[in-house]
């Protein structure tokens, strides 16, 4: 499939999936390869034939929706974000949880993929913060719409390239080598729960002290859907909770429920008046 044909198709199909083409521009290669493979499996000649197939088989839109899911991740992705979380955001949220008499810090990693993001947070907590907050337990709920991604996340084994950004010493402490992969040790996995859940439809029960929603909603979804999902996220956040977006993402214009904590790193805070009762 030529790139031009794939681009034309995506520009037609994505709005019908409540997604936006600009978010896919740089990562379309991954989607186009999947699409080409799927068209071949269906025995269709080209993307034009696939458009006609979609018209005759409305249920195929669910398949196309899954094809468009972009899976690019690694441990400690965007180092500055995790540095800010470890040095300032998590300690402040932990102190706030203490002041409420809580015995745990609740985190939601939305669109967690194969688990690199929530596991990074779990490792950082154990390596850097747990000694200072031994009275608090970190609980991470990680959700993704893709059941295969959640299965991979529970297995917790990764190629070396996925670990290249980890701080020195973390790989040796938190992982064991198994054949060509590195597998996360059980003591770093026990506080992470994976759920197959589509953020467009529902959210795990909160309240959460920290929500990470990076490189998903505010990159790929159209603005109307972004606003709906943002409202859903805010409804399960604790008073004073933090929301982390991707470093190239921003909240929809006119959003009043959140204020910037560190806008450069995509970190925001729920306004007290916006927290659920």
Automatic annotation (TrEMBL):
Keywords: Methyltransferase, S-adenosyl-L-methionine, Transferase. Transmembrane segments: none annotated. It holds the Pfam family CheR. InterPro entries: Bact_Chemotaxis_MeTrfase (IPR050903), CheR_C (IPR022642), CheR_MeTrfase (IPR000780), SAM-dependent_MTases_sf (IPR029063). Its EC number is 2.1.1.80. PROSITE patterns: CHER (PS50123). Residues 31-252 form the CheR-type methyltransferase domain. SUPFAM superfamilies: Chemotaxis receptor methyltransferase CheR, N-terminal domain, S-adenosyl-L-methionine-dependent methyltransferases. GO terms for molecular function: protein-glutamate O-methyltransferase activity. One of its GO terms (biological process) is methylation. This is Chemotaxis protein methyltransferase CheR.
